[in-house]
């Protein structure tokens, strides 16, 4: 999903004041809408990097008519957050996008850009939360994924403000935080693991507010939530080789597949063969090198050297030298004559689309192993079973590399040199998987 704001100088006002229309471009599931954000500003007031209006210019607060820059920026944030949540809802429910123009007009076209009396209060929690997110985003240079996740946190928080009529940060003592947890569980129907993530961010917000002198409460209450470990989804070596060598059918081909219960079902191939092959190649390259999606997406020809790649990771900033095996070299060689934007070496698509395509690719290949997933919603334990292909994501490539490297007998210390892990404890779950695989393999002798 993409929501972008920009100045449309091609439609610049012609009344002599030099104002330019701020426009909004929205893209969801391939459908696009470009429309006005509802106001115009002077070009020098616009920050193209943040896609927001400067709060001050030449030492003076920026005003657009009777409205402040902060008020107009709040409207842009509401548009961004609204369509992010809308897309998430579509994905959860498996629905197709509706008429973006009608949705936008209904929610924003006739909406006046104004603040309520409560929002104008100096201690208003909504303003504090917005300031916190803005400041921390700039200070810590949040990646796109982090910014999107924090927007979701902001949406849940503001929904809770409305639900409980919260106007002050002081509300979030132990009792207030418990109410927030109950809201996320009973109203938002979130899992305990997700609730824990949001309560951690609430403590982050409270610490910031305390340092600013906005509250005297302490961010030291941690609600006890039952949790279970998520299964580590990866491909074993045989599965990886099957995928690496798989010949994909043409789009429209009718396939007979088997589900996790052993029942046959029909599936029509919905993606072009070339698309599936490219997604497979990028994913397999991660499986053979340990790269995260963010790093393979940024891999450029300048990172390539004879026999190895040298990268600085996007997530941690680590400088890594990763030697290339024959499989990784073959994938690079396949695309050596192709020209991709920004001198990239592989045909990487967006993370969201790649995750969607990976699931279809893995289903076609036949990765239907049953994987039990257990989670808690409050004290309620929920047990579900998924086919492996349903849990596939780009990060499974990195897990596949680690698990197979350990099962091949490569020392964890060497694997950590490739992956950039600095904490041995982070490798422990993968080592346990490798040990269990060796134990199961040894039992094969008893069956002879």
Q: Determine the CATH topology of the largest domain.
A: hpI Integrase, Chain A
CATH class call of the largest domain: Mainly Alpha
Biggest sheet layout = 3 strands, antiparallel
Q: Widest sheet: strand order?
A: 1-2-3
Strand content: 15-25%
Output the CATH homologous superfamily of the largest domain: Intergrase catalytic core
* Average residue-wise pLDDT: 88
Query: Rg from C-alpha positions?
Result: 25 Å
Low-confidence stretches: 111-122
Distance between the termini: 54 Å
Using brief descriptors, characterize the structure shown.
globular; alpha+beta; 448 residues; 14 helices; DNA polymerase, domain 1; hpI Integrase, Chain A; three-stranded antiparallel beta sheet
Q: How would you portray this structure in words?
A:
44% of the residues lie in helices and 17% in strands. It is built from 14 helices and 16 strands. It is an alpha+beta fold and 448 residues long. Mean pLDDT is 88; it is low at 111-122. A hairpin with a 2-residue loop joins strand 8 and strand 9. It has helices at 69-93, 100-109, 125-140, 144-164, 174-186, 192-212, 237-245, 273-289, 293-297, 326-334, 351-365, 395-407, 412-419, 428-443, and strands spanning 2-8, 20-28, 31-41, 46-47, 52-53, 56-57, 60-61, 63-64, 67-68, 254-258, 264-268, 304-305, 308-312, 319-323, 370-377, 380-387. It has 3 domains: 1-70 and 86-112, no CATH class; 115-225, DNA polymerase, domain 1; 237-447, Intergrase catalytic core (hpI Integrase, Chain A), CATH 1.10.443. Strands 1-2-3 form a 3-stranded antiparallel β-sheet. A 3-stranded antiparallel β-sheet has the order 12-13-14.
